[in-house]
Amino acid sequence: MMPNCVAQAFEAAIAEAWRFVGQTAPNPAVGCTLLDEAGEVLIVAAHHRAGQLHAERLALEQAKRAGVFGRVHTAVVTLEPCNHTGRTRPCTEALLESPVQTVWIGCPDPNPHVAGGGAAALTKAGVSVRWLAESPNGADLAARCRALLAPFAMRMTQGRPWITVKQALDQHGSMVPPAGKTTFTTPESLRFAHALRRATDLVITGTGTVVADNPSFTVRHVQDHAERRRDLVVCGHSAHVSTHWLEQARTRFDVYFCPDIQKLPALLAETTALWAMVEAGPGVLAALREQNLWDDWLTIRQDAQGADHFSVTTRHATTPLALFSEWARCAEE
Ligand SMILES: NC(=O)C1=CN([C@@H]2O[C@H](COP(=O)(O)OP(=O)(O)OC[C@H]3O[C@@H](n4cnc5c(N)ncnc54)[C@H](OP(=O)(O)O)[C@@H]3O)[C@@H](O)[C@H]2O)C=CC1
Ligand SMILES: Nc1c(N[C@@H]2O[C@H](COP(=O)(O)O)[C@@H](O)[C@H]2O)[nH]c(=O)[nH]c1=O
């Protein structure tokens, strides 16, 4: 059985990791909580961005700075610790150089080149490795760890980012905003939509949307901690958009055009994006549906009273949109 303190440690690690979703590509968002022998939380940390310390190393560094390193007994990690040298040295080494005796792991590394290496190395060195999914009361939290990791897992297994379609419908079922406006959803839904922008690495749109809305695709309705350059893929022909819009877009985005939707997977594969968000009109949405080129479909439907109703359809067992409490929290900020 997983003790209560470990369950709470996983909750804390997932919430901390979620804060950096959208900033870590090409690395996954990962969280780590360190506990002492009595199960007291010592440190909660997460990976911030590629090239910086992984969650486990950052947590152990913070434990040293806080003077609690000697008390570290259990590490709770949302993803199997890495056992290979990339931009940074293996996390397994850092754990083995610490007093850690037990490592709880949320889900296995989906990278086919390194799968299993981290857990095996720790076990071989005498550390007790516990998999969340193998614990009778761990299934829900394991699913949340997989939801956190889903965009990275998609990139590792299919070579492209996770694709979330966001479609706003008015009370008549139309996607077209009233004249002079680009949106019609409520302020709360707009905050949610902008939190989704912040969490994703790439926007997919169409020339029809660009021409109709002159969209900026910026993060405005929630604070943008990341403020990094993102990718923007415009389905259609570049000749159909104004040079002025393109110049503006290029100040914030690396812009690509995709005149043939069948070439979209290859184009997406060339980027480092983990999570892509579709903000396009009916033309592109129909093409994506026809190609089965989407992973989850978020519909924001307005009723006659002006209230929005969210629904998510996913083609997979898990979706990052399942982390709804984290969403609510970040949409409130
Ligand atoms: N409510 C909502 O959530 C949203 C609403 N909208 C609204 O949608 C409306 C625009 O709709 P729409 O004109 O359909 O715009 P789209 O954004 O769907 O763009 C349509 C264009 O996409 C390109 N395209 C379509 N199919 C393919 C394909 N198979 N391969 C490659 N490119 C393709 C074509 O470009 P080309 O002709 O250059 O080849 C086509 O003209 C606007 O009123 C806008 O406000 C837009 C986004 C979100
Ligand atoms: N109409 C509509 C949306 N539309 C999307 O938002 C884009 C405008 O973004 P911006 O330029 O940043 O204001 C627009 O071009 C389209 O992609 N989004 C929503 O959340 N709700 C809405 O009702």
From TrEMBL:
Name under which the protein is recorded: Riboflavin biosynthesis protein RibD
Superkingdom to which the source organism belongs: Bacteria
InterPro entries in UniProt: APOBEC/CMP_deaminase_Zn-bd, CMP_dCMP_dom, Cytidine_deaminase-like, DHFR-like_dom_sf, Eubact_RibD, RibDG_C
UniProt keyword annotations, A-Z: Hydrolase, Metal-binding, Multifunctional enzyme, Oxidoreductase, Riboflavin biosynthesis, Zinc
Job of this protein: Converts 2,5-diamino-6-(ribosylamino)-4(3h)-pyrimidinone 5'-phosphate into 5-amino-6-(ribosylamino)-2,4(1h,3h)-pyrimidinedione 5'-phosphate.
Pathway the protein acts in: Cofactor biosynthesis; riboflavin biosynthesis; 5-amino-6-(D-ribitylamino)uracil from GTP: step 2/4; Cofactor biosynthesis; riboflavin biosynthesis; 5-amino-6-(D-ribitylamino)uracil from GTP: step 3/4
SUPFAM superfamilies, sorted: Cytidine deaminase-like, Dihydrofolate reductase-like
Family to which this protein belongs: In the C-terminal section; belongs to the HTP reductase family. In the N-terminal section; belongs to the cytidine and deoxycytidylate deaminase family.
Organism of this sequence: Acetobacter cerevisiae
Alphabetized GO MF terms: 5-amino-6-(5-phosphoribosylamino)uracil reductase activity; diaminohydroxyphosphoribosylaminopyrimidine deaminase activity
PROSITE patterns, sorted: CYT_DCMP_DEAMINASES_1, CYT_DCMP_DEAMINASES_2
Domain CMP/dCMP-type deaminase stretches: 4-130
